[in-house]
Design goal:
Structural class: mainly alpha
Shape: elongated
Helix content: 40-55%
Order of helices and strands: HH
């Protein structure tokens, strides 16, 4: 047995700056997101992130 050790650190949830949560959306929106994902070669998660970022940057509370 070698005296060299590999260390694996414990990663806490949320340490990477991301959070996981659940939302409810209409099936029609899921279908459209899946179409966009398929056409663009990106994951559903990536597309949702892009769309949310776009919307948040343009949100105007009145």
């Amino acid at each position: 047995m070698s005296d060299k050790q590999d260390r694996i650190t414990i990663k806490k949830r949320g340490e990477n700056g991301y959070r996981v949560f659940s939302i409810r959306i209409p099936e029609s929106i899921v279908t459209r997101i899946d179409q966009i994902a398929a056409e663009s070669g990106r994951s559903r998660n990536e597309i949702i992130g892009i769309l949310l970022d776009f919307a948040v940057e343009r949100c105007d509370i009145v």
